[in-house]
Structure formats: C-alpha cells, structure tokens
Design a protein that fits this description.
This protein is an alpha+beta fold. About 30% of the residues lie in helices and about 20% in strands. Strand 7 and strand 8 form a beta hairpin. Helix 3 crosses helix 5.
C-alpha cells in the first residue's frame, strides 16, 4: 500500500494562494504540466515548472510554516487541487501531496544552487515591457503580411523564434525569458519594480520578487533549449 506524502504546511494562506495562481498559469500552457518540488530542510519550498511555449524554467518559492525536507515531482493540476487556499487548514497540513510522477527530462536539469552573480546591462522594467509590446506588434505585422501559401505553423514558428531569441539590452538574455516572466505573473508594471539578472555556471536567471525565469546557455555561445545534462536543484 502506498502511503501518501503529507502536504507542506505554508506560512499563511497567501503563500498557498500565490502558489495556486502560479500553477494555474502553468496549466494554461500545458494541461498535463508536472512540477518538481524541493525543500532542503529550511522554511522555503521551491516549485519548478516548464511552460513549453517559452523553453525556460519557471521557479516560484513559497514560505513554509516549519522546516521541511522534500524532493518530488508531481502533477501540477493535482497539486493545485490539493492546495488549501482558504486558510482553514492551518491547523494541520491541509491534505496530502499527489502521488509522485515520472518526471519529464527537464526535471533533471535544474539550475545550480549558486553562487549567483549579478549581471549588468538589464533594462529597467518599463523598458522590458516596452520591448515586449514592440515584439508582439512586430509578430502580428509580419504574420498578417504572410501570403496564403506561406501562412503555415512552421513559418509562424520561425518568425516567433527569430523575434523572441533577440537579446535584451546589453545582456545575453533572450526576450522570450522576459515574455515568460510577464506571462506567468512575475513581471509587474511598476517602473521601480525590482528585477535583476544573475548568472551561475552555464545558467542565466531573471529574478523578481514573484518568481524567477532560468535558462541554460548553449555551449556554442548562445542560449538554447534545455538539454539533458543533470544539474543540481
């Protein structure tokens, strides 16, 4: 008989609600999404997901009520259903975690724990949002200009890859990472919103108070998709 894992107890209902919002956004892009959960004996739970449209890792943390040790991959949808966001479950753990699943390949390709070093050249948040707006407008214009014989999924994907792979400001960060941050609710419209770019080994990480977007540098020098080299959580 399989004994269900106990759900971590969050510091307050707001932590669970914020995590639920993150899971809901992941599921918008992939109804079968899985997430890897890690807690290393402290009071923080890290939740890793991979929205397929962006080819990046999304990382959301939540404060726990007490130190926990956990490392498991579960269904994002089942985890969302198990969360107690009412605050009524603060007396105990509020249910159980879903059964572990066999993780997709990306779950073994997590960013290192550090050390992370801040990188220069990242534009201000208002400039990041302006760049996103410009990119979306360009895609629509180029898409509408396609003749019928070229209006294919492959051609539209090619245009999208060209636009979203462009570097941001004076950095190596591709614009798709900023797009992912906005789409997942990590990037807010306040011009003074704190956003930073960090690097560790072969990884870059766009960090905001609401979550991070991480992706690995391509060995050839650029930034590509996630390969199958195992990293540390």
């Amino acid at each position: 008989m399989t004994v269900p894992l106990q759900s971590p107890q969050f510091a307050d209902a707001r932590e669970a609600a914020d995590l639920a919002a993150f899971l809901g956004r992941l599921l918008h892009y992939d109804r079968a999404a899985a997430v890897r959960l890690q807690a290393g004996g402290g009071d923080a739970l890290a939740v890793f997901g991979r929205p397929p449209s962006f080819e990046v890792l999304a990382i959301r943390t939540a404060r726990l009520a007490r130190p926990e040790t956990l490392d498991v991959t579960v269904s994002a949808g089942e985890l969302l259903e198990s969360l107690d966001i009412s605050g009524e479950g603060t007396g105990d753990r509020g249910g159980t975690l879903p059964a572990p699943v066999t993780g997709p390949p990306w779950t073994g390709v997590l960013p290192p724990r550090g050390p992370w070093r801040e990188q220069v050249g990242l534009p201000r948040p208002d400039a990041l949002r302006a760049a996103l707006d410009t990119a979306v407008a360009e895609f629509r214009t180029r898409d509408e200009a396609l003749p019928d014989e070229l209006r294919t999924r492959a051609e539209r994907d090619r245009i999208g890859r060209e636009i979203w792979s462009r570097p941001v400001g004076g950095t190596d960060l591709p614009l798709r990472a900023v797009h992912a941050a906005q789409s997942l609710g990590f990037l807010r419209p306040d011009p003074d919103f704190p956003v930073s770019l960090l690097s560790a080994g072969g990884w870059l990480r766009l960090r905001t108070p609401f979550g991070s977007i991480a992706l690995r540098r391509d060995p050839a020098g650029g930034l590509g998709g996630l390969g199958l080299t195992v990293g540390h959580g």
